[in-house]
Write a structure and sequence with these properties.
182 residues, Dihydrofolate Reductase, subunit A, 4-stranded parallel β-sheet, 10 strands
């Protein structure tokens, strides 16, 4: 998740034009996605992603990242949090939303290595409130937004974390990974 230094994941209007992305960052993220076999999205983020990634590699100006991520996106199971959508096995899309604690808990107990959450601040808020996030990967951008969509919202209990990894990029972004301490 991209986050500003002051803790926001989007502007008040939901814009991400402040987030720094370049080939070095894409290579780092690609290494991460290669280790994951499922992606979790909120409905809005999934709709945005699904309008781009299935055909991104087919575009004449597709970058190396577009080709790699498009192939991964087509192959990976996509889990979407929604109360209005329906699952679509032909697109590897599973929709959950009635009982997040049970449904996500069941998915986590099932086969597979890792589920990544892409963007989706509202979904992240819900999952964090339920204690369902095991590890946080934050890409801290060198910008202060002053206001916007907060990274964390509605947490009722303290969650202790331990630092797993850090990586500083030459563009000023710092990736930090924290695991939940049970």
């Amino acid at each position: 998740m991209h986050v500003s230094l002051d803790g926001f994941v989007a502007t008040p209007n939901g814009e991400l034009d402040w987030a720094i992305v370049d080939e070095t960052l894409f290579d780092f993220v690609n290494d991460r996605t290669d280790k994951s076999d499922a992606a979790l999205y909120g409905r809005k983020t999934w709709q945005m992603m699904d309008s781009y990634w299935p055909t991104a590699a087919d575009q004449p100006n597709a970058s190396k990242h577009d080709k790699q991520h498009s192939a991964w996106y087509k192959d990976v199971e996509k889990i979407v949090l929604s109360r209005t959508m329906k699952s679509d096995p032909s697109k590897k899309v599973r929709v959950i939303g009635k009982d997040l604690a049970k449904e996500v808990g069941d998915i986590k107990k099932g086969p597979g290595e890792e589920i990544l959450i892409f963007g989706s601040p509202s979904a992240g808020h819900s999952l964090a409130q339920l204690g369902l996030i095991d590890e946080y990967w934050l890409f801290i951008n060198p910008v202060l937004l002053g206001q916007g969509v907060p990274m964390f919202s509605g947490l009722k209990d303290r969650t202790k974390l331990k630092l797993v990894k850090t990586h500083a990029f030459s563009n000023g972004v710092v990736c930090v990974s924290y695991a939940k301490i049970n």
